[in-house]
Write a structure and sequence with these properties.
Elements: E1 7-14, E2 18-21, H1 22-29, E3 43-45, H2 53-64, H3 73-76, E4 78-84, H4 95-102, E5 110-114, H5 120-130, E6 136-143, H6 152-156, E7 160-167, E8 173-182, E9 188-189, E10 198-199, H7 202-225, E11 234-236, H8 244-252, H9 274-283, E12 291-297, E13 300-308, H10 321-326, E14 329-331, H11 334-340, H12 360-365, H13 367-370, E15 374-378, E16 384-385, E17 403-407, E18 413-421, E19 431-438, E20 443-447, E21 461-472, E22 477-486
Length: 494
């Protein structure tokens, strides 16, 4: 398959701020698994208790589609959204539809879940590229894979998300050629009723998997493109096996300098999201004219060859992958990590004994306010408010039926008041909440996320993040809403 001016028009990523030190994992399990010592370097990204694949996918897509209040043009042009993951929270509720609503995309958008393989994201990317002439597609990928305590997977895995936008309007990187091989080689698997991956011997995965399937796919791709391997400037292979990308590149004739950092030391191997996460990180640094070879591996391989265009200097993600890597918070609390991943059951006492049943009919009627975080703006006096009501809250106005939808999710807010509540139940105590005032108007009493104890201050700027509000453990349902998170750094293009 060869295409013309079709390619990637935007990209972004999301990495949870918490980075669990691998040394903490080893220290807790050395008595049972001393062999983990060789992996006890660096840190792995660890999703907070209120994060999952859906919330991370939303944040990655927001990074790729930055928007200003009341200017949703970059999202209104989206025709399709594909959500790729092997850890979707819902087996029978379209996860992509929830992502699309959180992004406030038009309800006419086509939404699709894609999973079942670690190359789901590259397969989704290929699907989008093949249909790019029919409209803009957002591909967002995320994974939060659980691993058994004291396993190698617990050391190697990480939680993250990435997104790319595909279209024809001033692409940042155009597709030159692609090739796919489908081969049911089982290197690992997770049955439908299991929580953890079953992983086969590393030598089998390396010798029969990566070293045979990937070279065959790459060689056929290069033949299609009429490109020599030494013309590749960036070689992206998501692989947790140390030294294997370099070995593969050498065998193919790709320059060693072209092998892209696999980000394992800083965040871990992030499953289906990892290929797009590495691609976004690469494009943040790539120069016009550079050729990028992207590999997706899992029951075969997808291989895509891109050429970076002059437009690359015109785009900047809202935060960026490099920025997210640089602003992680070190964590050595292994027990908290286990608790957040439901791998240890703590006794939270009577304060946790409550029924979190969701009124789904009410949620449906108010989903624009709950999921998309849309408030209202009075067309008569201009007062902004949340929630949106029939009557304007301005006592000097009081007009009825004048509320126009007003998006809050991309507004900058400031802490007006806050509480750190050690008495209320929270899976990561204390429960932090407060009154947030927004630039342009509006005040919302809401929960806060990612603040360390004692960090919050009146007047601090905050950004909005899409998170899990609570779990209904009786009915296996989770509710989502928005929370206020600290602003830890701006996007910087290297």
């Amino acid at each position: 398959m060869t295409m013309g001016k079709v390619g990637i028009t935007a990209f972004g990523g999301y990495i949870p701020e918490s980075r669990l030190e691998r040394s903490a994992i080893f220290d807790a399990n050395a008595w049972a698994a001393p062999g983990l010592k060789g992996l006890a370097r660096g840190a792995r990204a660890a999703a907070n208790w209120d994060e999952d694949s859906i919330t991370m996918a939303v944040e990655a897509a927001r990074d790729a589609l930055p928007t200003a209040p009341e200017d949703n043009s970059s999202r209104r042009s989206v025709e399709r959204l594909i959500f790729a993951s092997t850890t979707m929270p819902f087996a029978d509720r379209q996860n992509a539809a929830l992502v699309a609503e959180a992004l406030a995309l038009d309800e006419d958008v086509s939404a699709l879940d894609m999973g079942g393989s670690l190359k789901a994201a590259t397969s989704a990317l290929l699907t989008a590229l093949r249909t790019a002439q029919q409209g803009t597609t957002v591909i967002t990928a995320a994974d939060q894979r659980r691993a058994r305590p004291a396993s190698q997977q617990e050391m190697l895995y990480g939680d993250a998300a990435a997104a790319v936008v595909v279209g024809t309007e001033r692409p940042l990187a155009t597709l030159i050629a692609s090739h796919s091989i489908n081969r049911d080689l089982v290197d690992h698997y997770r049955a439908a009723d299991c929580a953890f991956d079953y992983t086969l011997e590393e030598r089998w995965v390396r010798e029969e998997g990566y070293l045979k399937i990937v070279p065959a796919a790459v060689e056929r791709l290069l033949a299609k493109a009429g490109t020599s391997p030494d013309a590749i400037d960036h070689f992206i292979l998501p692989c947790p096996l140390r030294g294997l990308p370099e070995k593969l590149a050498a065998g193919l004739g790709v320059r060693s300098a072209a092998v892209h950092d696999n980000l394992g030391a800083g965040c871990g191997f992030t499953g289906a999201a990892h290929s797009l996460l590495m691609l976004a990180h690469c494009l943040e640094q790539a120069k016009p004219g550079a050729r990028v070879l992207l590999v997706g591996f899992g029951q075969g391989a997808d291989v895509l060859l891109f050429e970076v265009t002059d437009a690359i200097g015109e785009f900047r993600p809202a935060r960026g992958v490099a920025n997210a890597l640089a602003h992680g918070t070190s964590d050595s609390n292994y027990m908290r990590f286990l608790s957040h991943n439901n791998l240890v059951e703590l006794d939270w006492g009577m304060r946790a004994e409550r029924d979190n049943r969701t009124a789904l009919s009410t949620f449906y009627r108010k989903r624009d306010m709950v999921t998309a975080f849309e408030g209202g703006k009075c067309s008569r006096c201009g007062t902004v408010q949340f929630p949106r009501t029939h009557i304007c809250v301005n006592p000097n106005c009081g007009a009825a039926g004048t509320q126009d939808p007003y998006p809050f999710s991309d507004l900058v807010g400031r802490i007006k008041s806050f509480t750190e509540d050690w008495q209320a139940f929270c899976p990561d105590p204390p429960l932090k909440y407060g009154n947030i005032s927004f630039d342009g108007g509006g005040n919302v009493m809401m929960e806060m996320a990612d603040f360390t104890v004692g960090e919050a201050r009146v007047g601090m700027p905050v950004r909005m993040v899409f998170r899990i509000k609570d779990y209904d453990s009786r009915r296996n349902f989770r509710r989502y809403f928005w929370k206020a998170a600290p602003v830890r750094g701006a996007s910087e293009r290297t």
